[in-house]
Structures are given as C-alpha cells and as structure tokens.
Design goal:
By secondary structure, the chain is of the alpha+beta class. Among the domains are: about 80 residues, conserved putative lor/sdh protein from methanococcus maripaludis s2 fold, CATH 2.40.420.20; about 90 residues, Elongation Factor Tu (Ef-tu), domain 3 (Beta Barrel); about 60 residues, Orthogonal Bundle (Helix Hairpins), CATH 1.10.287. A hairpin with a 2-residue loop joins strand 19 and strand 20. The protein is elongated.
Length: about 350
C-alpha cells in the first residue's frame, strides 16, 4: 500500500514539474523591430549632378574630299582607256579617248560652212557697195557668217574634250566603262580620289538634335575597323544645311588626320564627335539602372515609409565608365537603390543595409 502511495506522489510531482517547464518555454513575442524574412536588403547611393559635353556617336565611310567623276563632253565610241582601277595618276594625265571619226567630220563640216559663209558675206559686201544688194541682205550675210564661226568653235571645243584627263593627283578608285563601249555625254567613266594626306575625310549622318549641337571646328575621335586598337583625331569640316531626303539625317564631314597610316576610300569608321555645347546631367551608378532598353530605363527609389520602393522611368544620355548620365528623370530625388535593385519589384519590402 505504501508503495502505491509513493508511486502516485512521484507521478503528481512530475506532472506539476512538466507543466511549469512548458509554461517557461512558451513562445515569446518577437520584438517590434525584428526584420521579416521576405525583406530585400538594399543600399542607397546619392544622386549627383554634373555638367558634361555629351559626345555624338555615328558611323560612316572614309573618302576623299577631292573626288571626281570624270566623263566625256560628247558621246561616242571609247577608243582607248589608258589606266585601270587602283592605278595612281597625275593631274592632267590622259586617261581615255573617243573614236574621233565622227567628231573630226563635224569639225570639217563646220569649217566648210564657215568658209562658205565668209565668201557669201564678201560677195554681198561687194554688191552692196555697187548698190546691187540691200542693207538687209548684208546684215543677213553678216549674221550667217557669225553663226558659222560659232558652230566651228563648238565643233573644235568638242573635239578637244573627246578625251578625259585627270583633274587631281590621286588614284583611280573605279573604272565604269571599257574600250569599245558607247559613252553618252556626261556619263562617268572614271572615279578619281585624291590621295593627299590632307584630303581624307569621313562622312557620317546625324539626327537633327545632334546636328544642332555641332559646329565647324569641333573635335572628333575616329576608330577604323581596318586598324583595330588605333584611334585617329579629326575636326568637323562641313555641316549639311539640309537633311538627306532618304534617311532624314544631316551629313557631317570630318577631316581625319591619318598620320603615317595608309588610307583608302570605303574604310568603315566609327566617329565620336565632341560638341562645344555643355549640358547638365543627373549621374547615378550603372547598377542602379534596371530594365534598360536603348535610351530608356528604370531605377528604384525608397518610398516615404522607408520600407518599400517606387519604380521611376529615366532617360539615358550616355554611359561614362561605371556611371550613367541621365537626360531626364529623378527630379528632386536625393538617392537611388543600387545594391539589391536587381531583386526588387514595386511590391517588395526592403531593409537598408
């Protein structure tokens, strides 16, 4: 009996001890400032304002400012071509001639007509002196003689220009016809480009907004695919005063300084133009930009409650190393989210690190 009572006392005491332990181990209320496991840790970076001259970037082709498309003054059969593509020529050098059979005949015909008009004029003058011819007949004969002389001048001029001579010291970049072909008046037969170091240029097309910021004399940096890793300097030589009707871009002509490097027409060039006009930009770290698409992008900024974020659109001007210069957006915004921005949405809860 005593044994049974002892067992009951032990059980009751154990139960009371267990209840006390559970009461002590009951969950405690979390502190009010404890962070939610779903919060995204972020860092903020101050927004800066800078004044820069935004470069104008464009691409184009190398060419010569002294490029000539040479043709015959009159039409005819090409008798002889004296140069080929790639050949170096001198100013005044004979490049091609026409078959002169027809042209010489025209000169002879004009010569005979002029001689006849002169005889007719002398005859009318004699008759007029004897009062056998009227003043009108004399005037008509004089006019006929003058017209015949002018026709002879035209025929001889065309005879002299039934050949092509180079107008510049340069290289034949294209030969468009062959011997024996019928060349019409004014149709290009050769394209000649000057090879003087001071004549090399790059032509690019820019938008109206960029055109308005440029001036003659602005500096440029030029990279040629033919010479990777090498850059050339240049200056704006000419700005077009009207847009190209096909692509709506304004042509800009940049004179390039090749130094000791060999250039040729048609080389592809990437040009960075530096306008003298400055403008103000908002500058943020490049990691602050999310969903960038060309010139458009977004950034996250901290909301007023310091626990959420807002997504703001921005306009990207250009990238400068690890910074992005913005042309629009972030007015009156002191800071943007940098670290952690890639993991945010507009419903995210954040915690500052």
């Amino acid at each position: 009996m005593k044994t049974l009572q002892f067992i009951l006392i032990v059980l009751v005491t154990g139960g009371m001890w267990a209840c006390g332990t559970k009461a002590e181990e009951s969950p405690k209320t979390a502190p009010a400032d404890q962070t939610d496991d779903t919060s995204v840790p972020v860092k903020l970076t101050n927004v800066e304002s800078v004044v820069r001259s935004e470069p104008v970037v464009a691409s184009g082709l190398v060419s010569s400012s002294e490029e000539a498309k040479l043709s015959f003054k009159v039409g005819g059969i090409i008798e002889k071509l004296y140069v080929d593509e790639g050949q170096t020529v001198r100013k005044g050098q004979l490049l091609a001639t026409l078959n002169l059979t027809e042209i010489n005949a025209q000169v002879s015909q004009a010569q005979f007509a002029s001689e006849k008009a002169e005889r007719d004029l002398n005859r009318v003058k004699a008759l007029y002196a004897d009062t056998a011819a009227t003043l009108e007949q004399l005037q008509n004969a004089t006019t006929g003689f003058d017209v015949a002389k002018q026709n002879l001048t035209i025929a001889r001029f065309n005879q002299n220009y039934a050949q092509i001579r180079s107008t510049v010291d340069g290289t034949v970049t294209r030969r468009l016809m062959n011997e024996g072909e019928l060349a019409s008046a004014g149709s290009a037969v050769f394209v000649i480009s000057s090879t003087r170091q001071s004549d090399w240029i790059v032509r690019v097309g820019v938008s109206d907004k960029d055109w308005a910021r440029l001036k003659v004399g602005n500096s440029a940096t030029i990279a040629l695919e033919a010479y990777p890793g090498k850059t050339f300097t240049g200056t704006v030589k000419e700005l077009a005063q009207a847009a190209d009707p096909m692509n709506k871009l304004y042509d800009v002509e940049i004179r390039i300084n090749p130094g000791a490097v060999k250039l040729a027409p048609g080389l592809f060039a990437k040009v960075s133009l530096k306008p003298a006009q400055n403008r103000s930009y908002t500058m943020v770290p490049i990691e602050a930009i999310v969903e960038g698409d060309g010139k458009d992008g977004f950034v996250f900024v901290l909301s007023d409650d310091k626990k959420h974020v807002r997504k703001l659109p921005v306009q990207i001007g250009f990238i400068d190393n690890d910074k992005v210069l913005l042309t629009n957006g972030l007015a009156n915004t002191p800071s943007v989210v940098t670290a952690g921005s890639a993991y945010l949405t507009e419903t995210s809860t954040v915690v500052l690190q």
